[in-house]
């Protein structure tokens, strides 16, 4: 078993039940639904399939609802796409029109007020780079000039680096989607384009209003404002997703790697969940094996001790969804053995509450006595122990709901219920054999046992 968990995105390639069953067997921990696409009927069917497979296989794969967020996109084009050539001057309007190479529309009218002449506008993940060269007050349109040639398809993303965009954080669609998530009982909300702690708190307030405070909120860091306000966002959220797609458009690509290490470390030190996402084995959308660079990227997330890595298009729409899941698992498992987990313990420890103290002592005891597993009796203690990244696996005895929440936690493999036989079975599944030592930990005691 590997300690680094896996989030995978459901989509046309992975949602057939026979394929998803094999993906569950391969070790998927969290099934993500991207609410930028699809309707409630489609997502409801996916939720039903996940729950049926959990029942059939005895798994506890969790559900994550990923919001569309306050994102700007182009609208549609004639024939589904147009080619904008270097040097072209194009009018951008904010009412619905069918786009051409002379004029197309963007879905956010407030962009006219947010930009100035000279502002850089990046379209389609930055593949089309343009400059605002005019603002036309009469019809509230802007004119952009292309720096390069690119073919744009329908509904491509628009980014404006180093510019404050004043879109409201919670759109009506996002509010309705979150309410839907509360009603059907998802486990996590991944909140797109979070810029401040207040954005996170607004989602938590909405969940509370609908009696769904138990749903955990994962803040996606996707723009410069999110980076600038990282500390307050970590404090407000239950976890962080380092989402490198849109973020890689907003900031310089050479800054992504060192920023990733900073985000992972800060989030881990706060005891919050940290997910590394986007383009991890992107080439596996079309190829059965990843590039060597992609393998190194996934391994690097394991070396940094992220709680989880994530598959997006590779599992949702690629040719090899099951192979991508298996490959991610193989990479993290092969490389976790080279991580010096003791390095993660001592920089974290500052005398805190009783549970923190017990978690710290359990981690130290596990390292000192070469313990294979740490059995704990509640979900809170499991999360506290996981924060210190012990080399041993963490086995909490919890409820089904708690088990799904813990599915994102580094090294945590829950047992539902309190039966000794179930704990023994889990120990065996984690390759604990006769004569191996394990810890039994409660909120006030750490005890070494021999299997």
Description:
The chain has 451 residues and is α/β, with parallel strands linked by helices. It has three domains: 234 residues, TIM Barrel, CATH 3.20.20; 88 residues, PK beta-barrel domain-like (M1 Pyruvate Kinase, Domain 3, Beta Barrel); 109 residues, Pyruvate kinase, C-terminal domain (Pyruvate Kinase, Chain: A, domain 1), CATH 3.40.1380. 37% of the residues lie in helices and 23% in strands. The protein has 17 helices and 22 strands. The strands form four sheets. The chain has an eight-stranded parallel β-barrel, surrounded by eight helices. Strand 2, helix 2 and strand 3 form a beta-alpha-beta unit. Helix 1 crosses helix 2 and helix 1 runs parallel beside helix 12. The protein is elongated, with a radius of gyration of 23 Å. The two termini are 18 Å apart. The relative contact order is 0.11. The model has no long low-confidence stretch (mean pLDDT 95).
């Amino acid at each position: 078993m590997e300690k680094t968990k896996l989030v995978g995105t459901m989509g046309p390639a992975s949602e057939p039940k026979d394929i998803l069953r094999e993906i569950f067997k391969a070790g998927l921990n969290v099934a993500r639904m991207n609410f930028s696409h699809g309707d409630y009927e489609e997502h409801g069917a996916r939720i039903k399939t996940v729950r049926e497979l959990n029942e059939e296989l005895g798994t506890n794969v969790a559900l994550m609802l990923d919001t569309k967020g306050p994102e700007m996109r182009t609208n549609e084009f004639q024939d589904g796409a147009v080619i904008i050539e270097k040097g072209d001057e194009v009018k951008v309007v904010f009412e619905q029109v069918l786009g051409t190479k002379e004029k197309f529309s963007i879905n956010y009218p407030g962009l006219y007020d947010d930009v100035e002449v000279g502002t850089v506008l990046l379209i389609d993940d930055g593949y089309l780079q343009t400059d605002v060269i005019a603002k036309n007050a009469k019809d509230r349109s802007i004119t952009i000039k292309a720096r390069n040639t690119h073919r744009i398809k329908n509904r491509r993303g628009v980014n404006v680096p180093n510019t404050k965009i004043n879109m409201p954080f919670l759109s009506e669609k996002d509010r309705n989607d979150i309410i839907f998530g509360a009603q059907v009982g998802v486990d996590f909300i991944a909140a797109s384009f979070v810029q401040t702690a207040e954005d996170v708190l607004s989602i938590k307030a909405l969940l509370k209003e609908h009696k769904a405070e138990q749903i955990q909120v994962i803040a996606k860091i996707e723009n410069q404002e999110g980076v600038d306000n990282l500390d307050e966002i970590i404090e407000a959220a239950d976890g962080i997703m380092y989402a490198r797609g849109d973020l890689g458009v907003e900031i310089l690509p050479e800054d992504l790697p060192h920023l990733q290490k900073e985000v992972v470390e800060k989030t881990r030190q706060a005891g919050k969940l940290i997910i590394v996402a986007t383009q991890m084995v992107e080439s596996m959308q079309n190829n059965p094996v990843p590039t060597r660079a992609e393998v190194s990227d996934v391994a690097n997330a394991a070396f940094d001790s992220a709680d989880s890595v994530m598959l997006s298009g590779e599992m949702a729409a690629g040719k090899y969804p099951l192979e991508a899941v298996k490959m991610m698992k193989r990479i993290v498992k092969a490389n976790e053995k080279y991580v010096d987990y003791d390095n993660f313990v001592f920089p974290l420890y500052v005398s805190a509450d009783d549970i923190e103290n017990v978690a710290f002592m359990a981690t130290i005891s596990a390292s000192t006595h070469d313990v294979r597993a740490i059995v704990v009796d509640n979900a809170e203690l499991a999360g506290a122990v996981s924060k210190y990244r012990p080399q041993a696996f963490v086995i909490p005895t919890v409820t089904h709901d708690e088990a799904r929440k813990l599915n994102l936690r580094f090294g945590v493999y829950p047992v539902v219920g309190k039966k000794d036989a179930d704990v023994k079975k889990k120990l065996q599944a984690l390759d604990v054999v006769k004569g191996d030592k394990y810890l039994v930990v409660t909120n006030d005691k750490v005890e070494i046992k021999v299997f």
